[in-house]
Amino acid sequence: MFYLYGMAGSFFRRFTKRFFVFCNVAVAVAFLLGCYAAWFNPTHFWFVGFFTLASLYLLLVLVGFVFFWLFAKRKLMFISIIAILLAWKPIGHILKLKPSKDFAIGKQVDGLRVMTWNVEHFDILEHKTHPERKIEMLAIINKFEPDLACFQEMVGGDKDSTAINYLPTMAKQIHFENYFYAYSKLDDFDGKHHFGNIIFSKYPIIRKQIVTSDKRNYNSSFQYIDILKNADTIRVFNLHLQSLKFSPDNLRFIEDAETKTEIDLQQSKNIIAKFKTGFIKRKAQSENVQRAINESPYPVIVCGDFNDVPNSYAYCTIGKGLKNGFVEKGSGIGRTFSGISPTLRIDNIFVDKRFDVEQYTSVAKKLSDHFPVIADVRLVN
Question: pTM for the whole thing?
Answer without folding.
Answer: 0.90
